[in-house]
Amino acid sequence: MADPAPRTAAEHVRADAPRAGGPRAVRRTRRVVVAVLVLGLVAAGFAAFAAVPLGRRFYLLEAPVLYAVAAPACWFAATVLYSVAARRVWGHRVWVIVVVAVAGALLCAAGAVLASLVALVHSGPPEETVAAEVAPGGRHVLVAESYVSVIDPSCRVYLRERGGPFSRQVVVWDRQEAPCPERMEFAGGNRIRIVEEAVPGRDTAPPLTTTFDRRRMSVAEELGGW
């Protein structure tokens, strides 16, 4: 029986190479997945903090307490995930895991304190919708919302878009220690007219008007004042 032909160098390389889908490939995939999850949770925490002030602009997304609590929760989840997976997935030493876990715990604690302050600053007093006036075409609406400033009833009028979760808003009229306007309306084109409620013993104030930019969602002048 003839001896088998010797293998070439290329055949030796192919024979010694790790098989696709072998243990090394599985470990590599696991490391990438866990790393993406940890970094994603950390990034989600910072994104939650960034979303707090944006909620005042995008009124349908306004939930400062939820976003502020979500930030330390994401960082805590990232710390726990790393602590559990670091030894088994990456083979990190124990002291490295302890240092990262302590740093993550401190970040979560600081985030919780900062979350309370951010939620307190951006939540503002609770507002109650008193009246609404929809523009012709239905793409914008004026909304009067009453709130309490310290102990005095006050009112604020918003101009809002009506176009989905990222609809914007801007303050048109704001007055503390005063009732909501007697009438608010779209006065044609991009003009807004506010008629304040008459105060006993004072002359009737003339209607206040301003204009708004549909693209930038801004007003030429905020009416009312203090």
What is this structure, in a nutshell?
This protein is an alpha+beta fold and 226 residues long. Helix content is 43%, strand content 23%. The chain has four helices and eight strands; from the N terminus they run H-H-H-H-E-E-E-E-E-E-E-E.
What descriptive keywords fit this protein?
226 residues; alpha+beta; four-stranded antiparallel β-sheet; 4 helices; 8 strands; 43% helix; elongated
What topology does this entry show?
Blueprint: H1 9-16, H2 23-54, H3 64-90, H4 94-123, E1 128-134, E2 140-149, E3 152-161, E4 169-175, E5 183-186, E6 191-195, E7 208-213, E8 218-219
Antiparallel strand pairs: 1-2, 2-3, 3-4, 5-6, 6-7, 7-8
Helix pairs in contact: 2-3, 3-4
Helix percentage:
40-55%
Question: What fraction of residues sit in β-strands?
Answer: 15-25%
Structural class, by secondary structure, is: alpha+beta
What's the structural domain tally? 2
Order of helices and strands: HHHHEEEEEEEE
**Stretches with pLDDT under 50, minimum 5 residues:** none
Mean pLDDT: 78
Query: Quick one: biggest sheet?
Result: 4 strands, antiparallel
Region (Disordered): 1-22
Transmembrane segments: 32-52, 64-82, 94-121
Keywords: Membrane, Transmembrane, Transmembrane helix
